[in-house]
Design goal:
By secondary structure, this protein is of the alpha/beta class. It contains 11 helices and 11 strands. The chain has 2 domains: 171 residues, D-Maltodextrin-Binding Protein, domain 2; 95 residues, 3-Layer(aba) Sandwich (D-Maltodextrin-Binding Protein, domain 2), CATH 3.40.190.10. The chain has a 6-stranded mixed sheet, sandwiched between helices. The protein has a 5-stranded mixed sheet with strand order 7-6-8-5-9. The radius of gyration is 22 Å and the shape is globular.
């Protein structure tokens, strides 16, 4: 008993000192954030040109204006977004590195990579959701296919002949393509790229036959790609003449979501300030119009609600990945 009595005050003092240190660290981090001599980096774990990159660049300027410091987009692509995300979790949680997280990296990847290199919950501090974009099936403008039925008929006539591209193993395009194969009962081959941009370039050039993508509206409007169907419950306001997959005779739903994360243990003051500013930006008429113009459904929420959403998506994607038949790398 005497030994317990001697250790009690010591343990209490240690806990008090730890609490005081954490409080001072949080206060110091907040006082130094954002720092005038350090830009804030939005890390996009995909190459330039895809939907994730477009969203990051869309946010950078208004966020810079709101915080009074430069905000830059830094692309680190590879392995379906996993390489950039692995590098991000090594960043200091001081608010100067922000991850543009996606359903691919932060929900599907745990079921696709045996050595993921990060914990999808423990290694991140949720900030806010941004938007959700339903996938759109697109083919080259010169493709002979004008409907999903045309594509399905060709694929059934020549199994294994045709290809679909994606931003990488486990990305929304890959999983959407796998869902389509199952729903339509066709054999089309998957061709993974290191991002949506390179895949879309090859699609436009005719090197692959189709994609079920989330960032093709610009190419559709420019006459480079032809949309066949949208993987949403209802037709998209941005593509009112394009049928849903259900209307096209092959029912399926597929979309990608996007949000902002800080590294684990980020100070609450920084998280709350960033959440407040980003949600203001999402509500601004200009950004709202730009996002809806690219086919997105604007979201935005609290850090707590975004954290709960991500946890539920991780559970949901277990069945999606399993049903897709995608191998674990």
């Amino acid at each position: 008993m005497r030994q317990t009595t001697r250790q009690g005050p010591t343990r209490r003092l240690a806990l008090q000192m730890t609490a005081a240190f954490l409080a001072l660290s949080s206060t110091a981090a907040m006082a130094a954030w954002p720092s005038d001599d350090r830009p804030i980096r939005i890390l996009v774990p995909w190459p330039a040109g895809g939907a994730t990159d477009q969203i990051g660049r869309m946010l950078a300027q208004p966020l810079s204006q709101a915080l009074g410091v430069p905000v830059i987009v830094e692309n680190k692509g590879g392995a379906g977004g996993v390489i950039g995300t692995q590098q991000f979790v090594k960043e200091k949680p001081d608010g100067h590195a922000i991850l543009l997280a996606t359903s691919s990296t932060n929900a599907a990847a745990p079921y696709l990579y045996a050595r993921l290199g990060f914990d999808p919950i423990a290694d991140f501090t949720p900030v806010t959701s941004l938007c959700e974009i339903p996938n759109v099936m697109v083919v080259p403008a010169k493709s002979p296919w004008n409907s999903v039925k045309d594509l399905v008929a060709a694929a059934k006539k020549d199994p294994g002949k045709y290809t679909y591209g994606s931003a990488g193993i486990g990305g929304s395009q890959h999983l959407a393509g796998a869902q389509f194969k199952t729903a339509a009962g066709v054999d089309v081959r998957h061709v993974p790229y290191k991002g949506s941009g390179p895949a879309a370039q090859d699609l436009i050039a005719g090197h692959i036959d189709m994609m079920i993508d989330t960032g093709s509206l610009g190419s559709i409007r420019g006459g480079l790609l032809k949309p066949l169907a949208v993987a949403s419950q209802k037709r998209l306001p941005a593509l009112p003449d394009v049928p849903t997959f259900k209307e096209a005779g092959t029912p399926m739903l597929a979309s990608a979501w996007y949000g902002l994360m800080l590294p684990a243990h980020a100070p609450a003051e920084i998280v709350d300030r960033l959440n407040t500013e980003v949600n203001k930006i999402l509500r601004s008429p200009d950004i709202h119009a730009k996002l809806t113009g690219m086919g997105a459904i604007v979201m935005g929420d609290s850090p707590q609600d975004f954290g709960k959403f991500v946890a539920s998506e991780i559970k949901r994607y277990e069945a999606i990945v399993r049903d897709s038949g995608a191998p674990k790398e």
